[in-house]
Amino acid sequence: MRAPASNLPLVFDDVSLSAGATTILDRICLTIGLGAPTLVLGPNGAGKTSLLRLCMGLLSPTRGVVSWGGRIDGGPERRAILFQKPVMLRRSVAANIAYGLAHAGCPRGLRAQRTEELLDSVGLSALASRPARRLSGGEQQRLALARALARQPEILLLDEPTASLDPAATRFVEEIILATAHSGTKIIMASHDLGQVRRLAGDVVFLVHGRLFEHADASDFFDRPATPQAAAFIRGDLVL
Ligand SMILES: Nc1ncnc2c1ncn2[C@@H]1O[C@H](COP(=O)(O)OP(=O)(O)OP(=O)(O)O)[C@@H](O)[C@H]1O
């Protein structure tokens, strides 16, 4: 059997996204390859969510081309996206994962074992039979991660997955994200939390008002920001 075609590199070639008269993303050129997590950073309204939706193929650019491993027509195979507020099915934690596995084409006979493995990987084994909607916010986010991982994605897109979590829950989710990255899944994640970006990023994509100001290794971005806007954001100044 032929190996599935890779989604990487993910390339934005002069990509703009508009809605009516509003320019949401403005002529973005960007190449994202294999490796440590890519963090998409920027103030509210910078265009982070829109960029992730383009990465997933949920939106089409108004101008320019998005390609995955040189292909522009690829379906969302081996890509998964997690939004800020995950939707839990009205059933148990384990059944939510089994649903994800079925959806991903996992053979019926393997689902019980894979469900156990995935629950274990996100620390939810003890809550397997609890109704998913009764989980805490942090637990729901971990369940959503497990459901996304059921697809065995090559690229996992995460939209501020810890935005409403406390520090302990955030840390738990970050550990899962790093373990997922170490196992070879490419993470592309939106955040506006500088501490989180320092903890997780291999490289940083910095957006303001839909424009790409920097794409750099995380250490270069923090130690030697190339634009006044990035320097101001890192200092904690308002970037308007
Ligand atoms: N369909 C749309 N029509 C008009 N404007 C839109 C549409 N989608 C997004 N926008 C606008 O584009 C800008 C970027 O939105 P987006 O959600 O991508 O930013 P973000 O960086 O993820 O923001 P936040 O950090 O607040 O979640 C915002 O000003 C938003 O209001």
TrEMBL record:
GO terms for molecular function: ATP binding. Residues 10-234 form the ABC transporter domain. It holds the Pfam family ABC_tran. InterPro entries: AAA+_ATPase, ABC_SmlMolc_Importer, ABC_transporter-like_ATP-bd, ABC_transporter-like_CS, P-loop_NTPase. Signal peptide: none annotated. Keywords: ATP-binding, Nucleotide-binding, Transport. Belongs to the ABC transporter superfamily. This is ABC transporter ATP-binding protein. It comes from Sinorhizobium medicae.
